[in-house]
Amino acid sequence: MLKLMELNDENKKILIKELNERAEEVQGELVVNVTNILSEVRKDGDKALLNFTKEFDKVEIENLEVTDKEIEECFNKVEEKFIKALEEAKKNIEEYHEKQKTKGFLITKEKGVYLGQRVIPIERVGVYVPGGTAAYPSSVLMNVIPAKVAGVDEIIMVTPPDKQGGINPYIGVAAKIVGVDKIYKVGGAQAIGALAYGTETIQKVDKIVGPGNIFVAIAKKLVFGTVDIDMIAGPSEILIVADEKSNPRFVAADLMSQAEHDKLASSILVTTSKKLYEEVEKELELQVKELEREEIIRTSLKNFGRAIICNDIKECIDISNLVAPEHLELMVDNPMEYLGQVRNAGSVFLGRYCPEPIGDYFGGTNHVLPTNGTARFFSALSLDSFIKKSSFLYYSEEAILENGEKIITLANKEGLTAHANSVKVRLS
Amino acid sequence: MLKLMELNDENKKILIKELNERAEEVQGELVVNVTNILSEVRKDGDKALLNFTKEFDKVEIENLEVTDKEIEECFNKVEEKFIKALEEAKKNIEEYHEKQKTKGFLITKEKGVYLGQRVIPIERVGVYVPGGTAAYPSSVLMNVIPAKVAGVDEIIMVTPPDKQGGINPYIGVAAKIVGVDKIYKVGGAQAIGALAYGTETIQKVDKIVGPGNIFVAIAKKLVFGTVDIDMIAGPSEILIVADEKSNPRFVAADLMSQAEHDKLASSILVTTSKKLYEEVEKELELQVKELEREEIIRTSLKNFGRAIICNDIKECIDISNLVAPEHLELMVDNPMEYLGQVRNAGSVFLGRYCPEPIGDYFGGTNHVLPTNGTARFFSALSLDSFIKKSSFLYYSEEAILENGEKIITLANKEGLTAHANSVKVRLS
Fold it and tell me: Name one GO biological process term (chains A, B) (predicted).
């Protein structure tokens, strides 16, 4: 099911071009619709939210805020086994993100100069969580835990109500477990508007994170600047580097775990063994029939499934660096030996027993990763996403007397005489 | 010249609204023009660059790349005093940014699990430096030094040629001093296109930083995603918190150092002393006459100069946190006592002898700061801007046997059976 590409420079270019072109152009009409929704929310607040909920979610809501009682009911609907697994995942994710904490610093100098940098959590964060079939409790963990660990004061979750006006019990349970402060039953572009501008019920936030459909994505782009947003997730990918000793069953299963996400997902096998490739092809056919999302997987592999045979592992990793995949699996012996060669990848899964879904749910690393080649310059969601750094500088009178003339020289050369003047007045 | 606003909740809202509204809407026509320039550069490469240079910069260039000989000539045109000041500034800026280095980490667990995060410099960075009256050597230092310290492999500078086809000697000298790898004589949207897509001469980069005019700003927005970009600088501001002991000469000079940037800049005095405000008003009139940019300063102060009298310093800082100014000066005794109350500010200048221009040129902190209230969630340009963080995760066979069922439970609840399958195949 994977399209075999011969290894040459021309094909490398084609591969990158085909992957990049997955990102769709946004429809102008959609942007107009979303703009209107946002401006109604800005103008009419809660009233607009309730109207849009009636229109789009086909349900009349009385209270936007989810009550403690509703959360209690969520727990009644969910199996103990699920809660236990979620709590253990939370522990692992917290442990990993705790390590991301950064400290400020202070430099002191003679003659009364000091300067430094402080690390300050963002005050209020909004987390969007989709409803329906895309209601992922793991997404609640991955977006909320780093904000919590970073020390954000208040975390507000928005999620669309179901047809009965309730919320998905798995989402409710996940939100309670990670300590979300407030949950509101509102989704779509209107929820993003509420978070960005505030309404009578929902307080304005400083940053919005979390995945959503095309309306949510456009709304996030439009409010960017008024608030900060996380990355807009593009089509995702897995690239597997596998040697001749790799188990084709594992390789096939892992390629499909990415392919099931959507029809634009890309699964790429880069291997030193033609034989492995052939066996993987057979395994794909065998396994795909047993999977619920067979049709999506087949379409995704047909469109964006690729296989490339290389001469050695280094050549495989060179291709991976070119693709800059969201997920990279290094299915080789001693994988740590090769990690230093990996320059561009969102998250790297090492060895033969570490399929990407361990990271999606449980391992501890974050599953919100740079997609569509942006791992060249973007990083996963992390504590960095929920803090800001603010610098400070102190000069004593003695210090400005000593250095003032140099600063005046530099300012004057740029024609900024009022800059120079602010130093001058202190020298006389 | 400052508009005095009484302290009340209504006025706080008005203040924020007036400041936010400074950000102008981008003209649709301009976006079309820039889109065309970008697509011609993408199609015709160097040829397009030379044509646009002829059209916009009114000069015919033969070689885009600046030669060693041209750089040597720059040094001949520049005073020794300037070079010395620049070198000392470079030392201070390096010292500060060295402290921003972050390390990766590794967590090891029993039963063969390890995970962690690596810090990897971005490979190739492009720095835009404006020409003409906005050719600021300090901007070269502030944009290039953090990239250098971060370990970026290659730093490429673009700057428009002057009417004789040369480059601004101060820019040339600054670029040499900080160790830019290559300099090309090309400006405007076409330069951004060259950096984003690459041409025969100019290699494609991964990230573009540096200020520019409206064409450059729009081009940066349009190529965002293909490459990363820094913040788009909006209208800037200074907020000065001053007590009754503050010197009105200093306060007035500092307010104007910001006001001279452009007519949208905002200078805000928040003080516990009505008397100080009145004296500052007199000083503004006295000093402004001596400054080259008198007209810009008068317009800027008239439009966006504000003064608010508060009851105590805490009240002053509350207003500052609301404004989230790019620059905050705390002109009080023992300023460090108040720093912990400052939640939202790009950079804080402490005490009576630390006007903001020390930070613009010399002190060591970065002068590329979040503008127009975005200090609520953005940080200054820093080492973080030139690195990415990549996670990794290893599970042994024993570890997946122990935890596999939990991961399967979580994946199945999300309806992602191919995710579950990638774990299942390893359990049997």
Answer: L-histidine biosynthetic process
